[in-house]
Amino acid sequence: ILITHDLGVIAGRADRVAVMYAGRVIETADTVELFEHTRHPYTESLLASIPRLNQDPERRLRSIPGLPPDLMDPPNHCRFAARCSYALGRCRAEDPQLEGPDGGHTFACFYPRPDREGWETDESAWARAPEQPAPSEPNGSAPAEISPPVPDEISPAVPEEAAPNGAGTATDSILDVRNVSKEFPVRSGLILQRTVGTLKALTDVSLQVRRGETFGLVGESGCGKTTLGKLVVALEKPTSGQVVFNGVDLAKMHASTLRREHRNLQIMFQDPYASLDPRMRVGGIIGEPLIIQHEGDARARRNRVSELLDEVGLQARMADRYPHEFSGGQRQRIGLARALALRPSLIVADEPVSALDVSIRSQILNLMKDLQEIHGLTYIVISHDLSVVRYLADRIGVMYLGKLVEVGTGDEIYARPAHPYTHGLLKAIPLPDPSHERHKEGTPVRGELPSPVHPPSGCRFRTRCPLAQERCAEEVPQLHSRGGQHTVACHFPLN
Known about the structure:
alpha+beta; 8-stranded mixed β-sheet; 4-stranded antiparallel β-sheet; 15 helices; 26% helix
């Protein structure tokens, strides 16, 4: 029994599926049948809410409005009716039972999705509802198979002048990370501790983030993404190198100056359950940055908190509640409101939707895009979900064991991956398409991530790379241009 909100995992590994909503099974069928012939509007909406690799970044993700019903007092009619685009009067008066014309595919809906010829249904609800994208639309072509490389004549990377989506120019950078390394001592002993090694979390990382753009960081757990995010907002100091924000090196700032600068640098933490103080009311959590920065009087702060709650889609009266009274998606909205409180220019979003289900995730992603447009925000989005980063980011950096191995636009990274590691990550993405998942060719990245205490010599990916040669063990590859904004650190990049 596999319990998950990742429909791509279900598509490739489950024989049968039961879709649940508000404490009830609302549709069940064989996996292929469910994905190809979806009948319940909730299942259809879940599938349509998933970011796809071929998703048009300009097109909003479909999301399910509202919230699930309160199960302390559940409705005595269809529990999805309040959020369903196709609900009619009967849906708010009667409770549909789990049944269907085919004993193997059952669904609890009075007006199921019209699908097969011969399956009777009342299509009036679907005819009057807004046109929706089909849930079985293509997921995009899979990355090409790795073939033996032909070494390119590569030249040093040259910064591009034009930024994507109007994000500014290469000289209009809000953040400049220059040759940053971060090491942590490894100690042994319970009482008399001694240093026995050094964990190399980041090694010689350089990148620029332009004002108004979204820069995505992807990679496996332990690759250094979160450490880099903490350095950007000055929660950690680099062992060497510089983190330059608005032309000033953060590590050289006096503590009082850095505290004032934090009004322009904010972070959304990964876990919406652990990042909110359970002893504080939500109004106090959101208003705390205003108190620290001496913003306004008590009345002005209360008004600002109400304004922020409204902006992220919550009600002002919720300011008096505690975090445990909110769902995961609502808590993430609270975290976003707290990050926006001081009107920052850059927000680091560390796995902003990893703990959320599919439908709530699409709401948060759409909200982040809307707020970026309204406030001119710059985002650094850290995630292991490449489809989420594809939807949000203008440019993407791929990290492996503390180093950047590839940087480029979404089209460059996803359609023409040049590094074998990037190619492997793309192959590993589970897509909500049983046919694709069960006939997937090629293999994702094999083996385990090496220890950052003793990283491999030369190219750090060589111990897991199917294309590694002798040169890879002897020489550290540097980022070189592949044309456009695309750079890769590989001696033998993919053609």
